[in-house]
Amino acid sequence: MSYIHSVAREVPSNTVKQEEVKEFAKAIFKNSNLEIEKYLPVFENSKIKSRPVLKDISWYGETKSFKEKNELFVTHAIEMAKASAQLAIEKANLLPSEIDIIIVVTSSGFITPTLDAQLIDLLGLSTDVKRIPIIGLGCAGGANSIARAGELSQLYPNKNILVITVETCTLTFRPSDKRKSNLIALSLFSDGSSSMIVSGKEKKNSISIKTNASRKWRNSLNVMGWEIEMDGLQVVFDKSIPGLIAQNFREFYMKFLTENKIEKSKVKHHLFHPGGAKVIEAFANALEIGEDNFYYSMKILQEYGNISSPTIFFVIDEFLNDQKFSGGELGLFSAMGPGFSSDIILFETT
Fold first, then answer.
1. Of 199, 221, 240, the domain-final residue
2. Residue 304: CB partners within 8 Å, gap ≥ 6?
């Protein structure tokens, strides 16, 4: 058995309201070929009220080099990851030296040696800790890392696994990019980190990770991801993402339930990565359940925006803090990401 022993969050102190970002977008896209007034409703439709960002909004209006942005990624990613990891270790009543495995997830910048190597000394982890960097899974990285941590803790039940997710999504904004996909990204993304301790040791009033499945759909590499430009990472967003979820996710979901001999009605909790309000709507339609089933996903989206991989950890943390569950209830974690891909993880409350 695998148990979540703690979850911790870290976000920048700077918060921006959605209305401010909307006004910023009007100025950035004013002289472009994009009919900006036509697309401005995406800011209200996103349902986001405010979100944490690393810089003052005016900073994002000036073109920066890829080198400058990546240096900022390294600085801020290490800073936020360290803070969330320290808190997760503390909340689990562990010492840094008691961490046996470290998994670090990111997709918004590049560094070698990888972030896990940087954090070993900063956190005071053992020099013998096992390291697993997960890079390039985007929004799916959080769910994928939970699946891997669950499998590892079943193999090594006495090991303490530290899972860190960290993203600096807003640093990737390119004011020179006047495409609709860049506007959509501007309406959604934010910055932050979240860490989790997973172990085979029993934990009450928490979550037990049971099993998981992964799916990479064919001929879908261009749906989501990055392209590299001189001034940074250019977001790739296909307008068909909600449609792809509506068409394809139900079969994956039902196959997973069937293989694990679970009736759909027995799944009480859906803690999904909230890619956006339309993504949550697409999940609800595909699964033929009410959007109220994604209460925690929508709450986090409204208050934090889309931080990419850490967001599902925020959703889980909110669910655990609320404690509105009894032991023995079944639920699912899930997220979509580049590939086009998805992970589903079955859990049970304890």
1. 199
2. 11, 51, 52, 190, 192, 311, 314
Phi-psi region of 135 (alpha: psi -120 to 50; beta: other; left: phi over 0): beta
User: Which uninterrupted H or E stretch holds 72?
Assistant: helix 66-91
pLDDT, tens digit, 9 for 90 and up, residues 56-91: 999 999 999 999 999 999 999 999 999 999 999 999
| Same domain (yes/no): 269, 188 | no
Q: Using CA atoms, how far apart are residues 21 and 26, in angstroms rounded to an integer?
A: 9
Name residue, tokens 């080198």.
67
Q: Which of 199, 230, 245 is the last residue of a domain?
A: 199
Residues 168 and 254 in one domain: no
Q: What is the DSSP string of 222-245?
A: TSEEEEEETTEEEEEE-TTHHHHH
Distances from the Cα of 186 to the Cαs of 19, 40, 135, 259, in angstroms? 12, 11, 22, 39
For the record, the structure tokens of 16 come out as: 């921006």
How far apart, in whole angstroms, are the C-alpha atoms of residue 276 and residue 284? 13
pTM above 0.90, yes or no: yes
Same domain, yes or no, for 40 and 171?
Answer: yes
Which residues of the chain, if any, have pLDDT below 70? Answer: 238-240
In terms of residue numbers, what domain contains 32? 2-199
| DSSP conformational letter for 93 | T
CATH code for the domain in which residue 225 is found:
3.40.47.10
- 99 with 186, same domain? yes
Which positions are annotated as active-site residues?
A: 139
Residues 151 and 222 in one domain: no
User: Cα–Cα distance between 134 and 253 in angstroms, integer?
Assistant: 24
146-170 residue pLDDT tens: 999 999 999 999 999 999 999 999 9
Q: Is the peptide bond before 113 cis (omega within 30 degrees of 0)?
A: yes
